[in-house]
Amino acid sequence: MLEYKAGWYGREVIVVDRWYPSSKTCSSCGTLVESLPLDIREWTCRDCGVVHDRDVSAARNSLAAGLAVSACGDGVGPPRS
Questions:
Q1: Nearest C-alpha neighbor of 16 from the set 5, 29, 25, 4
Q2: What is the C-alpha R_g of the chain?
Q3: Tens of pLDDT along 35-74?
Q4: Which of 65, 58, 69, 68 lies closest to 24, judged by CA?
Q5: Are 22 and 72 in contact, with CB atoms under 8 Å apart?
Q6: Which residues contact 25 (CB under 8 A, 6 or more apart)?
Q7: Distance of alpha carbon 48 from alpha carbon 46, whole angstroms
């Protein structure tokens, strides 16, 4: 349904890997938090000090990942260690 509606409005749907750590990544500096339990709704980046709402940060990171795919044409997945 989402792809159908996107096509209807001339938009493109880009699927981000479900394991991409969008809520555990600082949307300001890119630092990845090792552990972030689901009951933690707000967290502070240890590197830059920015306070994040978990869902807002995840939305920003997902948007950035989608724009990167749109520009580069590559898949998005979790960072490799």
A1: 25
A2: 14
A3: 999 999 999 999 999 999 999 999 999 999 888 888 887 6
A4: 58
A5: no
A6: 31, 32, 33, 57, 61
A7: 6
CB 25 within 8 A of CB 61: yes
pLDDT digits (tens, 9 = 90+) for 4-25: 999 999 998 888 888 999 999 9
Q: Which two tokens stand for residue 81?
A: 């260690």
- Between CA 33 and CA 71 the distance in angstroms is 26
HEC profile of 10-66: CCCCCCCCCCCCCCCECCCCCCECCCCCCCCCEEECCCCCCEEEHHHHHHHHHHHHH
Tokens coding 49: 């000090």
